[in-house]
Amino acid sequence: MELKLSELLDLGRESVMRPRAAAARVLRLDLSYDAVLTAMGAVIACSAILGYLANVMFPAPVQTPWSVLTGSPLLMVIVQALGVLVTALGMTHVGRLFGGTGGFFGALVLTVWLETVLLGLQVLQVALMPLFPLFAEMLGLAGFVLFFWLLSHFTAELHDFPSVALVFVGTLGTLMAVAVVLSFLLALLGFASH
C-alpha cells in the first residue's frame, strides 16, 4: 500500500479532528510488518534528529534528566523505540484486561501512526523555535495533550470500546501504576532521590 503525501496530511488532520475514524482508516490500510517496522524506524530517526537539532539550536539553560537523551541521537532512538513498543504492548494487554479484542500488530500500527502525527507537530515546533520560542514551547505542551487524546481514541477503536473517557481514565490509571512500580524498583536498586 502506497500513500501520497496529500493522503498522509489528510489522515493527519483527521487524526486530530476525528481520531477514532482516523484510527479505523489506518487499521484498514492492511500494512505489512515490514512496512510498519520501516515506518517506525523512519519516524523514530526523524524525531531523534529533530530533538537533537532543537537541543543544539536552543540548549537548555539548566541540566535536566532529559539532557542526557537530547544530547545523544542514538540514545534518543533507543528510548523512543522502547517507548513505541511498550506503548503498543500496554495498549494491547491492558485493553484486553478490560475485555478488548485488539491485537499487538494493530496496536503497533496505531502507535507508529500516533508518533507520525506527533512528528508533524515536532517539525512545526522546531521550525517556529527561532521566530516564536514561546509559541514553540506551547506547541510542546499541546503535543503532550495530543498524545493522550490520540492514545485514548486509538485504544478505544482498537479494542472496540464504546467510551473514550473511560479509556482515558484507564490510561491515566495504568501510567500511575507503572510510575509507582518503577519508583519502587528504582528505590530498591538504590536510585532513590535524596
TrEMBL record:
Pfam name, any one: Yip1
Transmembrane regions: 35-54, 74-92, 104-125, 131-152, 164-192
Record keywords: Membrane, Transmembrane, Transmembrane helix
Domain of life: Bacteria
Membrane topology: Multi-pass membrane protein
Cellular component aspect of the GO annotation: membrane
The name this protein goes by in its record: Yip1 domain-containing protein
Species annotation: Phaeovulum vinaykumarii
